[in-house]
């Protein structure tokens, strides 16, 4: 057990990530009281029933009153609306953070609306599952995972240090990087894989209609492993692609180039080229360590 870091925490959007963060902080003994604000009455009820939070409200403004930490864990597209709703009700000295998967857009959506004396720190835990809602949450979610914090020149160093401590208490390793740098990295390691997974499910279904029978039902582990993330929440992913458009489009263009190279090798029956591409891919995949087995990125604040 550690000392209480935040006497009162308000989580806006008590879904998978917000609820897991609350559970992890609770388990670490780092919070006093936790309340939530959520658009979904059922999620509030479940979060109270599961003892994730002590209370909740459908009014985000009511939920943040007297909070020392407000953590925004709604889909990225709702962040600006929520920031505007809560801003007049925040206590002086409060830290506002978020867990949104796109950071450039999150900074723009939240920081300009906060009053003097309230400190914003952008964050994104690189952890999660394809499930949603508080009942899918678990306290161990962030253990052994990265949490990226994305300070800007405006970020208060003491608030940044406190958020770093909070995520470390949740079991994460914290790295700080520029929002745009974060968005390019995530476009590669998260957003592009989702583009592929969502698309392949549709491709297989279209073929099933043409063949007049099942296709994906016969899938072995390769199709299942590759498409697991296509079971993720469509609203969350819609918002990610709307808000990281430029970086994702750049990655899709690069990927199409690589696909075209492989397509040509297959069309030409170019065995040497195929072997070269597959040997490189296998070596890179086999060298991919556990999530934390990389050199920490340079801190760019
Ligand atoms: P989730 O389980 O769907 O939870 C989001 C919650 O926010 C839902 O209860 C939703 O209610 C509520 N909400 C939506 N708009 C709201 C508003 N205006 N005011 C109050 N509550 C609102 O989603 P999640 O997976 O935890 O994702 C939350 C955030 O974490 C997203 O920004 C996502 O990019 C980020 N993230 C997700 C993952 C992941 O693996 N899932 C990983 C890292 C970061 P409704 O159900 O009524 O919409």
Task: Please compute the radius of gyration using only Cα atoms.
Answer: 21 Å
Mean pLDDT: 94
Give me the number of helical elements.
11
Summarize the biggest pleated sheet.
Answer: 6 strands, parallel
Spatial ordering of strands, largest sheet:
3-2-1-4-5-6
- The span between the termini is 31 Å
The level of helicity is: 40-55%
Number of strands: 9
Q: Pick out the low-confidence regions.
A: 296-301
Which descriptor suits the 3D outline?
elongated
Look at the helices and sheets and give the structural class: alpha/beta
What is the element string, with H for helices and E for strands? EHEHEHEHEHEEEHEHHHHH
Percent strand equals 5-15%
Q: Which ligands, by name, code or SMILES, are bound?
A: NADP nicotinamide-adenine-dinucleotide phosphate
């Amino acid at each position: 057990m550690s000392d209480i870091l935040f006497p009162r925490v308000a989580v806006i959007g008590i879904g998978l990530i917000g609820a897991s963060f609350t559970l992890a902080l609770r388990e670490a003994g780092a919070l006093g009281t936790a309340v939530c604000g959520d658009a979904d009455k059922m999620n509030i009820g479940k979060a109270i029933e599961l003892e994730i939070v002590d209370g909740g409200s459908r009014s985000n403004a009511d939920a943040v009153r007297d909070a020392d930490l407000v953590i925004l864990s709604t889909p990225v597209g709702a962040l600006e609306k929520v920031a505007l709703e809560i801003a007049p009700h925040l206590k002086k000295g409060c830290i506002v953070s978020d867990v949104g998967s796109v950071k450039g857009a999150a900074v723009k959506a939240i920081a300009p609306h906060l009053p003097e004396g309230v400190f914003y720190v952008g964050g994104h835990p690189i952890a999660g599952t394809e499930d949603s809602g508080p009942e899918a949450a678990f306290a161990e979610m962030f253990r052994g995972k990265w949490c990226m914090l994305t300070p800007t020149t405006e970020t208060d160093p003491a608030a940044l240090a406190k958020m770093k401590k909070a995520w470390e208490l949740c079991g994460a390793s914290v790295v700080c990087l520029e929002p745009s740098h974060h968005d390019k990295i995530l476009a590669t390691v998260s957003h592009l894989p989702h583009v592929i997974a969502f698309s392949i499910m549709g491709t297989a279904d279209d073929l099933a209609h043409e063949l007049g029978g099942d296709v994906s039902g016969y899938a072995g582990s390769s199709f299942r492993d590759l498409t697991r993330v296509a079971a993720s929440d469509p609203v969350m992913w819609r918002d990610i692609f709307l808000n990281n458009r430029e970086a994702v489009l750049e990655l899709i263009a690069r990927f199409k180039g690589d696909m075209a190279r492989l397509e040509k090798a297959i069309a030409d029956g170019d065995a040497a080229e195929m072997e070269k591409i597959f040997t490189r891919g296998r070596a890179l995949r086999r060298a991919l360590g556990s999530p934390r087995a990389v050199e920490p990125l340079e801190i760019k604040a």
